[in-house]
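[DERIVE STRUCTURE TOKENS]
===
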Amino acid sequence: MPAIHYNKQLLIAGIIFTLHNTEEAFGFRQFRFDENPLMHIPRNGEMTTAIVIITLLAWIAIGWIALQPQIKPKRFLLTTLVSVFLFNAFIPHILGAIYVGGYFPALVTAVILYLPYTYWMLPRLYNEFGDRRSFYITVGQGICIAIALTGFSQLAGYLIYRL
């Protein structure tokens, strides 16, 4: 397996992420949820704001990391993004579609972009780590960071939309 060209793959991951988030923003504008007292469903403006914030944060990270001469930060960010793609494809998109019994915003790009890219990229990233434990820790850290940033962007979207 040839070595990973990290800057190129970070660019590809950023484009995939942006396409997915674009579908998500437009999808949430058209999508109507049933009222659910157990969870907060963001309004269209909140969701769009959150999506824009998280996309900008990802591009800032990609740009900054791409300028770094070391491979480790690039490997960490790419592994994080790919792990997030896999996690995010299933939760909320595929499970959301099953739950609502039809289309859930960003389901199409989750299935046709996230899953194939993850399937192709994860084994290559796995082989880039000398220590398998480090790979799994990086995947776990990446998912935790993504969950925290998503929560932050949702809160920011809520506050901006309400102000």
User: Anything to note?
Assistant: The chain has a mean pLDDT of 87.
